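user: Kindly work through both lines:
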Amino acid sequence: MKRTGILAALLTATLLLTTFGCGGAAIGSLKAINLSTSQGANPDVKGEGGTIQLTATGIYTSTNTSDLSSHVTYVVTPQGTDLSGIALPLPPQTIAISPTGLLTAVTPFDCTWTNLGTTTTPSYFLTGSYQVVATFKGISSNPIFVAVASAAGDGPSGACGP
């Protein structure tokens, strides 16, 4: 009887460990990852050392959710050019990301906005951004596109972006 009890306890523990998701009690299989930012739909890393926090939320077949921000792998890909028309550099230049999803503007500082208006009535256009995707257990999140405004631009008083 002792062996049966120990075996039952081990099986129960194994079942619980394989059923619960990483980062909380999200029962079921991971079906999607929703990537969001602390700045909403149009994130812009502003200023030297400026930051944006990303949140990777796991969505499970049971409809439970779990914060996976420190469990996912982040991939940051430059898209487009800077203000001067030069292709954006690969991270960790201009933008760096921590294992917990904190994006930080780093040297060389850059501007991915251009002013198509005037100095008195600016009208900004995004020339480039960094695409961020989070991946965990073979599932990738929706992409987030992050603008950079850590260097001077061509707007009024040298402003970079809106």
